[in-house]
Amino acid sequence: MSIDSPSPNRSSEQPPPAAPIRYGLIGFGAWGRFHARSIESAERAELVAISVPSKSSRDEAASEFPDVAIYENYEEMLKRDDIDIVDVVVPSFEHHTIGMAVLRAGKNLLLEKPMAISLEECSDLENTAAKAGLSIAIGHELRLSSQWGQVRRIIDDGVIGEPQYVLVELSRRPYRPGSNGWRFDSNRVGSWILEEPIHFFDLARWYLESAGEPENVYATANSRDPSHPELHDNFSCLMNFQGGPYAVVSQTLSAFEHHQTVKVSGTKGAIWAGWSGSKDRTEHPTHFLKIFDGENVVESNLGQSSGEVFELRKQIEHVTQCLLENRPPHATARDGLWSVGMCLGAELSVQRGEAVSLTDFMKPYL
């Protein structure tokens, strides 16, 4: 047998399975619990440690995940050498500080949106990760949705021609205050545009990717509480792209339940999708996606349920697979920076009452 010939049994041999991606989790609030459960259920992922400062939350984490190490101090958790990636699910104003600690500890980072509450902080995270050769994935999980992700696939398939107009709209009940009321404190939340609308700006930019980056925004907003005009109960923004395509992002927190709409019009056809639930994290929503190819209207069979809970599970599976295959995640640090930039540009437009050039606003950080 020559040295180049395969051994008799080699064709039946399988490569050894890759070691699981080991996760640390910082934060165990309402959404952090969903992250923990999603990691536990994901193929090739293993939850090895959770850090949360609240004793009651630590007790709950220990009860639900008895085989996972529980820490009060995330810096202690980051000293472990058996963690590949840290999933950070904490209030927005802590994203930069904790994200930087994760990167400096040599761990990859999965960071909930917004990436941070300023462009300076986003740029700092992006540059630190790049220099260390580490990955940052941003929690824009709607890109992985069986519904909102399908909209992009239809665009890419050319069914509606070149996209020219995108509407992403949400009508919902008011926000929850968050731990210690941080979400209603403008110094800690940064801007309510950085909360849910950031997902919609990300979708609009993603759907209109063929047009290049957005060039300017014009936004308006109002509040039911005159003492806190910066907390926008009603918000709408027009965003223009190079060559003429544009997007509208709109949200009201003065309504009920949770109802999201996406419409995309192209040079040949159009898409209309809707999602409704009693709350944002329901596991039993109603949803639809209709496609017009210029001649016929058909309704897509999504095959899988759509919603935050389902998309989070997909995100954990996706990020795990990306690390195993050493490829970029669905939403990179650059995507996270752009999403924050679009939101802060819109906030500045609300304050000034005039259009803001994103080309100029974003330039120092790109």
Describe this structure in words.
The longest helix has 20 residues, at 333-352. The strands form 2 sheets. A 9-stranded mixed beta sheet has the order 14-13-12-11-7-10-9-8-15. The model is unreliable at 1-12 (pLDDT under 50). The chain has helices spanning 30-41, 55-64, 74-77, 95-104, 119-132, 148-156, 186-189, 197-207, 308-325, 333-352, 358-362; strands at 21-26, 45-51, 69-71, 85-88, 108-111, 136-138, 163-172, 214-222, 234-241, 246-252, 258-266, 270-277, 286-292, 297-299, 356-357. The chain has 2 domains: 21-141, NAD(P)-binding Rossmann-like Domain (Rossmann fold); 146-304 and 333-365, Dihydrodipicolinate Reductase, domain 2, CATH 3.30.360.10. The radius of gyration is 22 Å and the shape is globular. Helix 1 crosses helix 9 (308-325), helix 5 packs antiparallel against helix 10 and helix 8 crosses helix 10. Strand 13 and strand 14 form a beta hairpin. The chain is α/β, with parallel strands linked by helices and 366 residues long. The N and C termini lie far apart (58 Å).
